[in-house]
């Protein structure tokens, strides 16, 4: 057990709930002492009642006082247990908020390349599986419970030692085997869950497909429902069979533990009978000793179970802190402390890319190979190529989303690896093929482009007019306060073209110096795409623009065209220059031109 992770957890608890933790600890100590007090009270009540029955001189008020004291102790124990539960809930809520925020912060601050790693997704899924606060409170509560149980067992041991030392041995002997067995199965359950994570994640993915609006059209059209259900069923049953197999083994082991405990109780009973037959015990002592033996065995069982639970959940705690400290050395070229340069207030020389090469994580094949080119300020660049040629990968490198590349990317001779991340992102904007359709208001959807000006409605309207979105937004019931999408009540769904104009407005609202268009109009008709591209260029005359497409007709309006093939630039120049080369660009352009002619004649 790596106690350092538990120590880290308790440090967080102390940081976020010091008073709650201290109060809960005091309550656990009191509850730990209470069994001994209860035993002595019970013993005295039985002894005095026995003497009263036998006609010996015993004051009724003394018996009544003991009974009232017993009642008061029971009520106090009940109240303290309820208060402790309330404190635990308060601490759990605090932890859930604080740690969930840390987990989400980690997700939005790690290098973008991490999202190319399946093991990162698996790790993320394990951490977010269930309420974080609840899972973190398990070892906290369990540790405090162990403190309570240790105090209780110490009380029982002291009490039993006054009767006979053999009772102490009999009560404690079951501790080691119970602890070993429960710790073993606790560890087995955690590692089973870890090994099942990829299959569980796939099963959850299939469940989301079966229950989301976006996928429902294709599932019905292609009749995928039964296939996906069978695939989900196989994964679900596979994981469940492994879980049930482990559960059966665990319960068989617990049955043996219970039998062993029962034999120990029989041995203790025989020893008690021997003591009472010799006249060493009064009736009250006999009864209280029997309760002490049962209490000791139960407490030992609880200590072993709780320690095993701590061990099992400590593995989750370890997994959580490893996620919060997740680091993939190969994906880090510069850390944030080394990024000290500012982005040029106005780009003067332009962008220069030299011998750029890129590998995806854990891949031996280069996605980009020795790419070099330069771009003047305000120049319009089209990047074309067939699917898989490396267009989107190149853009992600230019945007600083991937920083584990070989070669250099400079802006006005400043390496972008040395530019402060926030300043780099502030001067870049873009629209992607998989652009987001935020299920928020129109104002928020556009305002997200410049979050610092989210409340500047008139500026948002002006930008919306440039993108062409204002014409349909004005027809919505609440205009810019209308919620978009069908995910929440009162939302309005837009057409594909309308969503694209909203995304275009979001990109324009940032007022950045460099814009990336990564096939945002791929789903539109080529002629509509060309018109939208022309409209976009007219609103961004002085802005450096990279336009990524596999359609050659859209590239004609660009000042320079880069042709990618298998991760390399095989040609570059204007449309006329590339057509005169009679090379790769000419081949692709003619192939698409012939397709358009065939389409028109049909």
UniProtKB/TrEMBL annotation:
Residues 22-312 form the ABC transmembrane type-1 domain. Keywords: ATP-binding, Membrane, Nucleotide-binding, Transmembrane, Transmembrane helix. Signal peptide: none annotated. It is found in: Cell membrane. Pfam families: ABC_tran. Coiled coil: none annotated. Residues 351-591 form the ABC transporter domain. GO terms for molecular function: ATP binding. The chain crosses the membrane at residues 20-42, 63-83, 156-181, 251-273. It is a multi-pass membrane protein. The keyword ATP-binding applies. This is ABC transport system ATP-binding protein/ATP-binding cassette subfamily B protein. It comes from Caldalkalibacillus horti.
């Amino acid at each position: 057990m790596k106690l350092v992770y538990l120590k880290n957890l308790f440090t967080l608890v102390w940081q976020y709930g010091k008073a709650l933790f201290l109060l809960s600890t005091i309550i656990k100590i009191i509850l730990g002492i209470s069994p001994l007090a209860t035993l002595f009270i019970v013993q005295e009540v039985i002894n005095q009642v026995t003497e009263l029955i036998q006609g010996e001189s015993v004051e009724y008020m003394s018996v009544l006082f003991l009974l009232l004291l017993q009642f008061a102790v029971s009520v106090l124990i009940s109240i303290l247990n309820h208060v402790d539960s309330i404190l635990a809930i308060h601490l759990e809520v605090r932890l859930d908020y604080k740690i969930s925020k840390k987990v989400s912060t980690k997700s939005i601050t790690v290098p973008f390349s991490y999202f190319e790693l399946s093991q990162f997704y698996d790790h993320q899924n394990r951490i977010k599986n269930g309420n974080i606060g609840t899972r973190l409170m398990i070892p906290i509560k369990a540790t405090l419970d162990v403190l309570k149980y240790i105090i209780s067992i110490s009380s029982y041991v002291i009490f039993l030692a006054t009767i006979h030392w053999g009772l102490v041995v009999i009560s404690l002997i079951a501790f080691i085997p119970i602890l070993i067995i429960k710790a073993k199965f606790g560890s087995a359950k955690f590692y089973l869950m870890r090994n099942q994570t990829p299959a569980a994640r796939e099963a959850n993915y299939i469940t989301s497909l079966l229950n989301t609006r976006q996928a429902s059209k294709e599932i019905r059209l292609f009749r995928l429902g039964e296939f996906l259900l069978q695939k989900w069923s196989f994964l679900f049953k596979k994981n469940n069979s492994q879980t049930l197999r482990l559960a059966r083994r665990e319960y068989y082991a617990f049955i043996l533990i219970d039998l062993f405990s029962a034999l120990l109780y029989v041995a203790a009973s025989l020893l008690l009978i021997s003591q009472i037959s010799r006249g060493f015990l009064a009736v009250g002592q006999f009864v209280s000793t029997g309760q002490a033996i049962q209490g000791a065995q139960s407490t030992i069982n609880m200590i072993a179970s709780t320690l095993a639970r701590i061990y099992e959940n400590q593995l989750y705690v370890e997994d959580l802190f490893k996620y919060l400290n997740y680091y993939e050395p190969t994906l880090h070229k510069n850390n944030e402390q080394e990024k000290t340069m500012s982005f040029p207030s106005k780009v003067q020389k332009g962008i220069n890319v030299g011998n750029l090469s890129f590998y995806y994580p854990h891949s031996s094949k280069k996605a980009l190979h020795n790419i070099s080119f330069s771009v003047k300020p305000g120049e319009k660049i089209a990047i074309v190529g067939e699917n898989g040629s490396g267009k989107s990968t190149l853009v992600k490198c230019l945007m600083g989303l991937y920083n584990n590349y070989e070669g250099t990317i400079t802006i006005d001779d400043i390496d972008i690896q040395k530019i402060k991340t926030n300043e780099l992102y502030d001067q870049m904007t873009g629209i992607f093929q998989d652009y987001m359709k935020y299920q928020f208001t129109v104002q928020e959807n556009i305002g997200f482009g410049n979050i610092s000006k989210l409340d500047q409605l008139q500026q948002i309207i002006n930008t919306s007019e440039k993108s062409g979105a204002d014409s349909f937004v004005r027809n919505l019931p609440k205009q810019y306060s209308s919620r978009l999408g069908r995910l929440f009540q009162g939302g309005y769904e837009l057409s594909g073209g309308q969503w694209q104009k909203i995304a275009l407005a979001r990109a324009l609202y940032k007022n950045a110096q460099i814009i990336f268009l990564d096939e945002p109009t791929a789903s539109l008709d080529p002629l509509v795409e060309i018109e939208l591209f022309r409209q976009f260029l007219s609103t961004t005359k002085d802005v450096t623009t990279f336009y990524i497409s596999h359609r050659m007709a859209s590239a004609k309006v660009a000042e320079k065209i880069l042709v990618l093939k298998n991760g390399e630039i095989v040609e570059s120049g204007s449309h006329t220059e590339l057509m005169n080369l009679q090379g790769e660009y000419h081949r692709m352009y003619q192939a698409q031109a012939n397709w358009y002619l065939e389409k028109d004649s049909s």
